[in-house]
Amino acid sequence: MKFLDEYQNSELATKLAHRIANHTTKPIRLMEFCGGHTHAIMRHGIRQLVPETVEMRAGPGCPVCVTATIDLDKAIALAWLPNVTITTFGDMMRVPGSYSSLQQTKAEGADVRVVYSTMDAMKIARENPKKSVIFIGIGFETTAPTIAASIIKAQQGGIENFHVLSCLKLTPPVMKALLDSGEVKLDGIICPGHVSVIIGSRPYEFIPADYGVACVISGFEPIDILLCVGKLVEQIEAGQPKVEIAYRRGVKPQGNRKALELMGEVFQIDGANWRGIGIVPQSGLKINQKYEHFDAAKVFSGLLRCARNDKPVREPKGCRCGDILRGVATPFECHLFGKVCTPEKPVGPCMVSSEGACAAYYQYGSAKIFGNF
Amino acid sequence: MPKVMCLAIPMRIASIEGDEAEAEVGGVVRRVSIALTPEAKVGEYVLLHTGYAIGVIDEAEAKETLKLLEEIASFSEIS
Ligand code: SF4
After folding, report:
1. Do A207 and A220 share a domain, yes or no?
2. What pairs with residue A190 in β-bridges?
3. How many Å lie between the centroid of ligand 1 and the Cα of residue B3?
4. Which domain holds residue A298?
5. pLDDT tens digit sequence for A247-264
6. Is there a single domain that holds both residue A320 and residue A354?
7. Across the A/B interface, how many CB contacts are shorter than 8 Å?
8. Among A171, A211, B8, B52, which residue is least crowded by beta carbons within 10 Å?
9. Minimal CA–CA distance to A354: which of A18, A49, A64, A50?
């Protein structure tokens, strides 16, 4: 397939890896922000391919994983309100909330449906005018404009029974929070490719400037990632950290203007609650006043409070997802990994989600060889 | 379609109708929204994420990158 196959050439990958080995003189630590990158790195055995001096850590870029338990509890409480249909991306279904999951809630009789796109959720709303159809809006800047576009479309089409519970999160502010905490020392960041298709490269500029950490935006094929790691190593070795784009076929410095415009039309910046990190100021998006009749958190706030009945939030016992999302631990350091916690019987969200680090390490962790192309 | 949310698949735009388009990859045709990429033209490739084209692939940049990769490959043969 065009724009895919060219970036999956194993001979070229080996050459790029050699080049990285020739350039590196000291141990460095990189973080791949995005769960999609963690997945690709594990799947293609890139950690084994790059020299041992280059350590790669997973970061907080898995939308399902960073969704706080309390937000999941809210989604489950909404599902039990009369005449409500919950629509969600499939990965959210099995994530354990404090007392239940959306999957269990569905099995117990609530109307919970998996959709691939907000367009599917809107279609359900159109076809069921007597129901309130709530979309659980998780994701980063990649997904936020698609949700903004759907809300604008619902407004134009008079689909008033469509609502969104926004749990949307922003990438640069959480990178800042991680760097400020100083918990994990980083030399470079593999910046998320598809977040950057939307926001461009400029919002990362404070990272090399204020923290001296190299930033390179990467695509998702093995060649893309190796090209990115090569550029990071070059910057770090030269002692000249900056923001570079190694995914030029997709990312422009200014990002996608139209998408940013639609996000600005519908959302306002707000604090957001991240699993394992807590509330990070200005790191989330909430629906603004103009579109508040689409905001499930607003429209159902009273009912939601009653339904939740102030039951305390409980986190899965022994799960180190929070530490993993902060880059402080790897999945191998969790005692439950692979023994108690597996993709079939996941304890925490990092094992549930296909983008979760635990799922990727479990699925591909034993891959000693490169060549899973 | 990808299970991994932040992945986006390159698909070729086959036809356009308002803010929607038919996009094709490997013989599979899907109806997608181009509300975020109104500049997309028939024949161009877009990155598809949860049913929306989030960006148009820049063919010229893709060629540049491939050229650079070729150079790297031939250079490492010498070194
Ligand atoms: S292996 Fe399971 S229990 Fe351990 S951190 Fe990952 S998701 Fe949590």
Report:
1. yes
2. A32, A216
3. 20
4. 1-330
5. 999 999 999 999 999 999
6. no
7. 136
8. A211
9. A64
